[in-house]
Amino acid sequence: MAIKGVHAIRTGGVAVKRPFLTRQGGAVTSKLRILASHTFTPELPILCWLIEHEEGDFLIDAGMCEAAARPGSLDKSLGPFDAWLSHRICRFHVAPGEGLGPQLRQIRPNGAKGLRTVFTHLHSDHVDGLADLSERTFAVNAAEWQHPYGAPKRLLTGVRPQCFDLRPDPALPFGASFPLSRAGDLFAVPTPGHTPHHCSVILRRGGVTFFFAGDVVYNQEQLLRGELAGAHAQPEQAAATIDAIREFARREPCVFLPAHDPRSEARLNNLELLGP
What is the DSSP letter of 125? Predict the structure, then answer.
């Protein structure tokens, strides 16, 4: 789908243990519930976002490449133990043609060439598509790069990101931001909780605000209910982030686009606003 030069790219899907989505109990209990559960969710989309921009196109997260769902691929990117743990709680599926590379070639004449990639955070299902990018350079919050949480370290070995430092911004409820475009219409804001240094990306275009939320929540209903996910690294920070997004949406209604929400593509297509 494309709305005002904004494309949702579904790079396969993932089913996760049900307790992964909703937190119950303390830090240890919540994680044990995930491991002990035998019930998986229906398949959730793995979305990334292409933004056509006069300064050059931007890619928000990279999703998955086709090879990422093949047997043994997680061992190569994560290492044996983290791959074993990932298999315990997640089931990835990327069909032929669903990887990032083939879809970029359908949307852009030059495919991945010339894209500027920005990561919300460094989990596998947001960065494995790097393998399909001809230029493996990307922008990421410096603190996320320096202190990654659950990142595929083998995949990122030898990669040199363009790290940015968030700047104080009292005009926003997030308290900080970083401009990604010279025009200032595209910028990153801190939304910690899922990882300690998770960021979201905001685009203002044609009177509409788009909020690319990464894994702040897994669906918009969680945001509206103030529901925390079981997989968050920092639940208290995640709760504060939810409050900040709600405050932002009260000031500036936005199209809210989490990466795994089955309704994100429809909200983009219909310009459905999250607001007061």
Answer: H
In the Cβ-directed half-sphere of 18, how many Cα atoms lie within 13 Å?
6
- What DSSP element (H or E) covers 163? strand 162-164
Read off the amino acid at residue 241: T
**Which backbone phi and psi does 238 adopt, to 5 degrees?**
-65, -40
The pLDDT score that the predictor gives to residue 199 is 98
Cα 20 to Cα 24: distance, rounded to the nearest angstrom: 10
Q: Is 0.70 surpassed by the pTM of this model?
A: yes
Q: How far apart are the first and last CA of the chain?
A: 26
Tell me the per-residue pLDDT of 79-135, one tens digit each, with 9 for 90 and over.
676 777 777 788 889 999 999 999 999 999 888 888 999 999 999 899 999 888 877
Measuring CA to CA, which residue among 182, 179, 142, 186 is closest to residue 160?
142
Report helix, strand or coil for 268: helix
Q: Please give the CATH architecture assigned to the domain spanning 3-270.
A: 4-Layer Sandwich (3.60)
pLDDT of 186 over the 80 cut: yes
Q: Is the pLDDT of residue 46 over 70?
A: yes
User: What DSSP string describes 140-161?
Assistant: EEHHHHHS-SS--HHHHTT---
What DSSP state is assigned to residue 196? T
Cβ–Cβ < 8 Å for 88, 35? yes
Residues contacting residue 133 through CB under 8 Å, at least 6 positions apart: 59, 62, 100, 101, 112, 115, 117
Residues 112, 64, 12, 47, CA torsion sign: negative
Amino acid letter, residue 88: R
Q: Residue 37 half-sphere exposure, CB side, CA atoms within 13 Å?
A: 21
